[in-house]
């Protein structure tokens, strides 16, 4: 099958540090190539991929030192290039939210759009009614709740390469981990409180976006001042994750928002590290309760669950990851959706010619 993957241009593919969507696009693209498909990736020039790369910008927007730049112009130019070449592909797989809809409204059946973000925003229902012809994939079933009547054709959970984060059977296990962003919805303050009640050090590896600096300085920095039991190691990339996640006794994921997926949970599982997560968004779909972690509703339960999961069989955690969340599994599920779209177009063509 000939497949085009259209990535966002904000981060490198895969990102050098924090970044979700571009990371998934990289993993999916390589898994499709490994499965024998002809894949073309539209992305910024520094992308690392086994597919044919069409570089549509000299570098990812976040990495570009230019003071003045237009993310809208960059993405519109990319979509123009995709449109010019669309007849070369069986499927155009978009990961750029909905910006492509006006460009491809006359050929929506040629496309699949994976939505990677939260969908409970005011203006979205009207947009998805207006462009209802576009087939959509969700990254969790819970993600769909605000847009139940959109044109969903499947849910595909994220997956990562089985060799990316090696299983650690003998971790140091002398600290708890938090990995993600410092923001109100990620609730690192909860993670600090849980770790202190459990009586274990907490290591925080996190990005601080510009919009969250005031929150960090007001709410989080005071919790770290003079603390010997909490260390902030900053933003880390894939190279540092095996050490950071693999040696943790558990990952704390105390979110307070409708998380569409939560890649960090499966990154921890790949290392054999169990997860304690709040019952929000996709969490009940990702965590196998009592096997890969615990799902909790309050801080008291989280403290008890953290003490419990440290006794879990880490090999069993890794086994669940290999069964459910590798990039190979993710690619197989997307290929089923691609095939469904191609068959649907063939049937429509047959009816028109009859």
Automatic annotation (TrEMBL):
Q: Which InterPro entries does UniProt cross-reference here?
A: Glyco_trans_1, Glyco_trans_4-like_N
The domain of life is Bacteria
* Gene Ontology MF term list: glycosyltransferase activity
> Sorted alphabetically, which SUPFAM superfamilies does this protein's record hold?
UDP-Glycosyltransferase/glycogen phosphorylase
Q: Which residues form the Glycosyl transferase family domain?
A: 171-306
What are the alphabetically sorted keywords of the record?
Transferase
What biological-process terms (Gene Ontology) are attached? carbohydrate derivative metabolic process
Domain spans labelled Glycosyltransferase subfamily 4-like N-terminal? 18-130
- Record's PANTHER family? BLL5217 PROTEIN, GLYCOSYLTRANSFERASE
Q: What is this protein called?
A: Glycosyltransferase
| Species assigned in the record | Noviluteimonas gilva
């Amino acid at each position: 099958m000939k497949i085009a993957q259209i990535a966002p241009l904000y981060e490198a593919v895969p990102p050098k540090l924090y970044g979700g969507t571009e990371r998934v696009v990289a993993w999916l693209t390589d898994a499709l190539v490994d499965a024998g498909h002809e894949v073309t990736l539209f992305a910024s020039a520094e992308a690392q991929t086994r597919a044919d790369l069409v570089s549509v910008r000299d570098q990812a927007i976040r990495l570009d030192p230019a003071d003045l730049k237009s993310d809208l112009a960059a993405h519109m130019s990319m979509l123009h290039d995709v449109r010019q070449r669309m007849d070369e592909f069986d499927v155009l797989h978009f990961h750029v939210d909905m910006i492509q809809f006006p460009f491809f409204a006359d050929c929506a059946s040629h496309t699949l759009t994976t939505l990677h973000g939260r969908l409970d925003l005011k203006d979205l229902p009207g947009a998805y009614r207006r462009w209802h012809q576009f087939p959509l994939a969700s990254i969790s079933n819970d993600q769909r709740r605000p847009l139940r009547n959109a044109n969903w054709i499947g849910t595909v959970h994220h997956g990562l390469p089985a060799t990316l984060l090696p299983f650690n059977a003998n971790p140091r296990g002398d600290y708890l981990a938090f990995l993600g962003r410092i923001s109100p919805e990620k609730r690192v303050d909860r993670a600090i409180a849980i770790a202190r009640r459990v009586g274990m050090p907490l290591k925080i590896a996190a990005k601080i976006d510009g919009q969250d600096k005031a929150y960090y300085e007001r709410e989080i920095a005071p919790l770290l001042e003079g603390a010997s039991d909490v260390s902030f190691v900053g933003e880390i990339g894939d190279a540092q994750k095996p050490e950071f996640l693999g040696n943790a006794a558990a990952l704390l994921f105390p979110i307070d928002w409708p998380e569409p997926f939560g890649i960090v949970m499966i990154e921890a599982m790949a290392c054999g590290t169990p997860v304690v997560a709040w019952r929000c968004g996709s969490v009940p779909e990702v965590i196998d309760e009592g096997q890969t972690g615990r799902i909790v509703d309050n801080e008291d339960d989280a403290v008890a669950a953290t003490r419990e999961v440290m006794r879990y069989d880490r090999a069993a955690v890794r086994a669940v990851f290999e069964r459910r969340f590798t990039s190979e599994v993710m690619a197989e599920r997307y290929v089923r959706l691609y095939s469904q779209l191609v068959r649907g177009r063939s049937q429509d063509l047959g009816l028109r010619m009859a």
